[in-house]
Amino acid sequence: MPPKTQGFIKGALILTAAALTAKILGMLFKIPLQNILGAVGMSYFNAAYSIFTPIYALSVSGLPVAVSKLVAEQCARGGYRQVRKIRRVSLLLFLAFGLGGTLLLILGARFFSSAIGNPGAALSVAAIAPSILFCCLISSYRGYYQGLGNMTPTALSQVVETAAKLICGIALSLYVLNRGLSEYAAYSTVFGQFAPTSHQAHLLVLPWAAAGAVLGVTASTLVGALYLFFRHLIKGDKIGREAIAAAPRPEPAGKIASSLLKIALPVCLSAAFTHLTNLIDLATIMNRVSVSLARDPAAIMRMYAGLLPESVTQAGLPAYLYGIFAYTTSLYHLPAAITVTLGVSVLPAISARWALGDRAEIARQAASVIKLAGLIAIPAGLGMFAMSEPILALLLPAQLQDVAIAAPVLRGMGLAAVLLGITTPMASIFQAVGRADIPLKLIAAGAVIKLSANWVLLAIPELNVRAAAYGTILCYGFVLIAGSISLSRVVGRPVGVAKSLIKPLFCGILCALTANTAYGLLSNALSSRISALIAIGTGAAVYAIFVLFMKIITKNEAILLPNGKKVAKILEKLSLLG
User: Fewest CB within 10 angstroms: 218, 323, 486, 541, which?
Assistant: First the structure.
């Protein structure tokens, strides 16, 4: 008996719910951590986390794609013995990759941190290294279950992992910080290094405290890997004995490994390149802001007059501004962290349809994925643009000086978040139809645009760190336009990307305008935090109303929701379905 599978929308909802939960837990991790470490400490943490982000992308939507695609194709053909062998081979293969990557990062930690102009991040970079191994092990299990059409193990492992990151990261960071400051109080040293003042002691302890937080992130990936291992050991994969007995003989392990690598390498490169903009920012922001500071220090100091903490010197300003930029990145990645689940969920379904040659259904499913991605990314990103300062003040009430500097950065990153959120699931569609090379080429070209823009614009004193968002907008704007054209050509049918996004864009603009107007009216009578919460809720309510009244969701999409038949019946009676 073959295993039961979840529909693409239901699977996407399971993953989306998990992603939202994980993001909420992630914000509960990042917000107190930002208050503990400050902008300078966050520059060390973010240097390592910018390495972790593409690695984590591989474990969520990169390496699992190769396993998921092969498993889904074999399930469509009844090759369940082959399915089991794919899991075993992928586990060994990814284990080897993980060990190699971990050793490489440990040995190169000092070189990497020095190359980006942030040598204090070396401890954090070394602390994140073991996560490569654990993420590779996670990838094998997640890809296997996703290929079987079961998104629940992936979803639960994400939540378990993020909860562990919250607990371990905050606890280790606070422990290291308190230990270092206690040593200073007793001996005037911080982990053996003399500190002439309390301010100097705080600066000396920050790299260690950031490394403690990063070590918590690494511990969370170990917890995620152990969860999936024991879940599989206890519950298995639900493939019945009859299905195994009726399946044809599996291919040799070498051939399976070759097939996995053939799919995995371009997919992994594509997933890594998707986060290449983070690495470009990591490599260029401090270096090029230093150039702008050398060109006209007075212009930059005037721009931030009255906002910089007393402890931030002119020499330390590039690291401080990079830490400010780091405040915006978790919000910027939020829409894409949700929309990536749409691609993960639809990939097995499109892979199976591609194997059967059903291109009309592929075009329909691709259009649905892009529309749903737009419905999520557009209001989220435009909301960041319209409500940047209230949102940051809500999250960082103790750092209002930093908020004033970060708000203009978040406005630009909000627009970039819309583009990233829509393009992220498009990569999975290309991968499902055997064209993983296309997103790789597109994001490589976009990265060149991003790098060029950063190099030129960051060095302009009047722009400095704000220019990082402009390069990201140019990068993903190109990827969206070129990707839309390429997708229709590959599928052989018009997918209608622009048509799918027009109505969500209109609703998203109304949402942002409503929230901004409501905040302006309420902030005169209520506190900033209460006004922000009410304004965001009002914008979301207006958005939901217009989405329904414009009939953006179709009956087929509504049926695939949990209790979808009842939902579709109610919406149909109210004439709210497209």
Answer: 541
